[in-house]
Structure formats: structure tokens, C-alpha cells
Task: inverse folding
């Protein structure tokens, strides 16, 4: 084999490899530093992707400032009947739990002695009247002196007083209803001996009920008789009973820092009863043209600032707002928006100021999607 030219092949291969590397590097450098080719005629930039959100309109309406409390229902009139004299129960003239009328005799005590005294007093009164009439006739004929006439008149007045006293003693053995109402469950039976002041029966006027409740003292300046309130109770679920503030206690409780109020409500059908626990919603004030948005539209920020995203011309803009009262998933807007503005209520946490959006309308009152596209995304 001929090996004379073998020493010359290795330098040649090395030179060729070096030349290849230099060529590849040149091509790569030119590719990296080449000027971008101009866009073809009629071509446009790709549009920014629109964010899908739900929006609601800022609405205005009348609202009521209210405060809630709890209280206890009280009878319009309530009394426990007690005898003024001791005696044995002779008769009971009512049935438990029935309605009675003012003046009805409910309980009779044994009144044999008092009845006899009354009859005696009436007899003496009749005699005194007859004697006084005779003396008056004789005085007119000048057969008796004026002093005799005066004495007869005096005896007549004493007889009248004695008769009235005897009748009053008799009436004390008759316990009557002091007003129209419903009697409770009696605590005595016929034949029982009762002493003065023993409890016999309670009677309640529940055609009108009173409601006692307390509110913090900070509301005192905003309270006044005649204010309307709504009353609810577990004994009549789902029903709202209108009521009215009747009186405000002038003394504020120093321990609880609360003021006592009393309201009145009609109870003609007897649905509510005294002693029942009740919930109260007192309407403190009414305001017109209050701007409201769904509470879900608010986004908290550092400090006490809050903001919302307002949608205008298909773009979401961040707007700071000042809020007022909140109630039923709605919030009052005091400053920052105007009526009929559109605010984002769902999807706002993926937005930035100036983000294009495709919005769907949501009604603030019924909170249902209206399936209405409001804007078209622009480039």
C-alpha cells in the first residue's frame, strides 16, 4: 500500500471543518440581525381578548332607614281580679277563656249579711223620706219651726248615706269585669273561702296589644311617637303586623345604655297573645332617589377605600366610590357614580383598568340574567 501522501490528509480535513463552522456562524448571525419583513398589505394586529363579565345598572328608588330589635307583647289592659272583702265563693258566672263585657258579674261571694243590711238601710231611708215630706208640709203651713224642718232634712241625708254604704258593702261581694276582655283560667271554686286580696281570675284586653322594646341610646335623637314599625312573631310565621310608636320613656337605662319604647298594634283577630316574643323593625326615616348597586360589585382596597368597575363603551374603568347603608345584598352609593351607570357584578377580579369586556346585563331587583349583550369589543 502507498502511504506517502497520508501525512497531508489530516491538515486538509481540519481546514475543511473550520471553514464549515465559519459558514454556519455567518448564516446564524445574519438570521438574528436581519430586519423584520414588513406586514403584508391589508393585514391587522390580533385583537385583545375580551373578558366576559356581568353588569348591573345603578338604580334609584325610595329606601327606608330602619333598625331591628326584639320585644315582648303586652295586653292593652290587664288585671288580676281580687276581692276587697273576705267571704265564701257563692257562684262563678263565667267560663274560662271566654269574652266578657265591662260590668259583667264574674264571681259572687256569700252576701247574706250585706244583703240584709242593705234592705234595712233602704227601709230606714223610706221612713226618713216620708217624715221629711210631712215636716215640709207642716212647715209650709207654719205648724213647725224651721229647726224641726232642718232636723228632718238632716235625718233624711243620714238615711241616704246609710243606704248607699250598705249597698256599697253588698256590691263588694260581686266581682265585676272592669273592661271588655277575655278571662283567663280561674283559681277558685264554688265554696272556697277567700280573703281580701286573694287572686281570683285574670282578665286581658287583647283587641289591641302593646309592644315594649329597647333601642341603643344613639338612636334617641331620631325617635319620636308616631313612627311606623313592622312586627313579626314565630306564632304567626310569614305575617307582618303594622304598629306605631306610642311612647318613649324619658329615662335612659344607665346599665344597658338603652331607651325603652312602647308601640301599639291592632289584634282584632286575636292572632297574637300577650307575653309572646316579637321581632321589631322600626322605620327611622324614608329617603327618595337613593342610588343602589348590588353589594357584589364592591371591591375592597387598602385602607377604607372601595371601588367598582364601571363599563363604558365596552371598556371597564376602575372608579372609587363612597358608600352608605347596606341592606338585602344592596349598597347605597353616596359618591362616585351616577344613575344608569353600569357596574360589573361578576368577573371583576380578572379585570384591570381599561380592560375590554363583553358584558351581560343582570337586573338589580330580580338578580336574573337578562341575556342581553351590551357592548362590542373594540381593538
Result:
Amino acid at each position: 500500500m502507498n502511504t506517502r501522501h497520508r501525512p497531508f490528509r489530516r491538515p486538509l480535513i481540519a481546514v475543511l471543518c473550520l471553514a464549515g463552522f465559519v459558514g454556519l456562524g455567518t448564516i446564524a448571525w445574519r438570521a438574528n440581525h436581519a430586519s423584520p419583513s414588513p406586514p403584508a398589505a391589508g393585514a391587522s394586529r390580533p385583537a385583545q381578548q375580551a373578558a366576559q363579565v356581568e353588569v348591573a345598572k345603578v338604580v334609584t328608588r325610595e329606601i327606608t332607614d330602619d333598625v331591628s330589635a326584639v320585644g315582648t307583647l303586652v295586653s292593652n289592659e290587664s288585671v288580676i281580679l281580687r276581692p276587697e272583702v273576705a267571704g265564701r265563693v257563692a257562684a262563678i258566672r263565667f267560663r274560662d277563656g271566654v269574652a266578657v263585657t265591662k260590668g259583667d258579674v264574674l264571681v259572687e261571694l256569700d252576701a247574706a249579711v250585706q244583703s240584709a243590711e242593705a234592705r234595712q238601710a233602704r227601709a230606714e231611708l223610706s221612713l226618713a223620706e216620708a217624715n221629711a215630706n210631712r215636716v215640709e208640709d207642716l212647715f209650709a203651713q207654719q205648724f213647725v219651726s224651721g229647726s224641726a224642718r232642718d232636723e228632718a232634712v238632716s235625718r233624711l241625708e243620714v238615711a241616704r248615706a246609710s243606704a248607699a254604704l250598705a249597698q256599697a258593702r253588698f256590691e263588694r261581694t260581686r266581682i265585676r269585669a272592669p273592661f271588655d276582655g277575655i278571662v283567663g283560667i280561674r283559681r277558685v271554686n264554688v265554696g272556697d273561702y277567700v280573703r281580701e286580696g286573694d287572686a281570683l281570675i285574670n282578665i286581658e284586653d287583647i283587641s289591641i296589644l302593646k309592644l315594649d322594646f329597647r333601642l341603643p341610646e344613639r338612636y334617641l335623637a331620631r325617635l319620636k311617637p308616631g313612627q311606623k314599625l313592622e312586627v313579626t312573631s314565630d306564632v304567626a310565621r310569614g305575617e307582618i303586623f303594622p304598629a306605631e310608636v306610642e311612647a318613649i320613656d324619658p329615662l335612659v337605662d344607665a346599665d344597658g345604655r338603652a331607651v325603652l319604647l312602647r308601640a301599639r298594634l291592632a289584634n282584632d283577630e286575636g292572632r297574637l297573645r300577650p307575653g309572646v316574643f316579637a321581632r321589631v323593625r322600626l322605620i327611622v326615616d324614608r329617603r327618595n332617589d337613593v342610588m343602589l348597586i348590588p353589594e357584589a360589585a364592591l371591591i375592597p382596597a387598602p385602607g377604607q377605600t372601595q371601588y367598582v368597575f364601571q363599563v363604558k363603551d365596552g371598556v371597564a374603568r376602575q372608579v372609587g366610590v363612597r358608600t352608605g347603608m347596606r341592606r338585602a345584598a344592596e349598597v347605597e352609593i353616596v359618591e362616585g357614580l351616577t344613575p344608569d351607570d353600569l357596574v360589573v357584578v361578576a368577573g371583576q377580579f380578572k379585570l384591570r383598568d381599561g380592560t375590554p369586556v363583553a358584558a351581560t346585563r343582570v337586573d338589580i331587583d330580580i338578580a336574573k340574567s337578562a341575556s342581553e349583550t351590551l357592548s362590542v369589543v373594540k381593538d
